[in-house]
Amino acid sequence: MKRDSERGAAAVEFAILLPLLLMLVLGIIEFGRAYNAQITLTNAARDGVRVMAINNDQTAATAAARNGASSVSSTIPSSAITISPATCSTGTQVSLTINYTLSTITGIAGPFAMTGKGVMLCGG
Question: Is the pTM of this model over 0.85?
Fold first, then answer.
């Protein structure tokens, strides 16, 4: 038989540990979202720079990058995408960079500044 002085000890221990467990789970969720967004932005930048290197068309490259990053945000402005140099001549490297600020679900940490960059040799 349990003594009356030990009654409710499990509830108190749970109440002490619950905030720590919730912080751990929410941190894992936030990290997973940020990691997924970073990978998506990098892949979108690679898609955009590939279009630029082959077609030498900034508008099409920007559209390809925005389409590739649509799972992160459907509202990435064209001003957040930079292509350098502006024209792609055979044998030179072109780079495309996407800048995005990822807001967090919990608001505990962040927002996180994310950058996706792709570099490719022109003339495909």
Answer: no
